[in-house]
Sequence to fold (272 residues):
Amino acid sequence: MPDDPRRLDGRIDDGDSVLVLAGSRSDPDDRACTELLTRHPPAEANVLSVSLDSSPDDRLALWRRAVGESLPRRAAVVDARAGAGDHPREGSSAVAATDAVALDVLPAGADTTAIGLAVAKRLGEWSATGDPTHLCLHSVGPLLDSFPTPAVVSLLDGLNRLGSAMDVSAHHHLDPAGRDDATMSSLRPLYDAVATYEGDGWRVEEPAAADGTDARSPRPAAAGPGVATAVGPPPGSPTSTGRSRSSPTPHAARCCRRSSSGSATTPRRRWT
Fold:
């Protein structure tokens, strides 16, 4: 029911990036997640869950409570919880028991670049399937608690640019309680829509560009310092965590690289 203010899925366009603002693990937060992940029949879709504050088994259990045993055509969980790499089997036994869900556990100490590369790699593997892809990041809070805000903004902006280029429908969760206005103001322009739960339903804001055009249209990054580049490091070069990796795809590099000045990428949208 698109007119039901308690539902979010009917008010978001395919391919949009959405910041979902609601109490962490509240019923509205959980319902919004599964509604957005099931806008296409699961058997015809790809679903990627990036988990920073709950176990892979918790995310799978949420899906099964809302959807049942029907799993997506392709499904994967990126376990980016702090310390998950030290205990890779903790909280993932149910996921490991099914061949239908891939599990990527990031090593201990993984930074925002490692998280971005893991997401980009999985999306890149699915890019030629022709099936709609949905991405959930749960949630932005642990990122803000663990990394400087500019690094988080750079990661989220890169992921949203990547999703826009690959027509991924993405939503990122955040409990706004305790977050200051400056932090929220730095996050809002990164998304096509911001959905806030207000007790009796969702309020959805869409950005409007200063020039009056549709701010959801793709906008090229401005040239100059701080803009993400599409050129990755040579094959085998170390990442910022000191681990070696193969040369990323251009999309992965665009998602994760930052300028030598260390500043965050330029937001692609402005709010009025």
About this structure: The radius of gyration is 18 Å. The chain is about 30% helix and 15% strand.
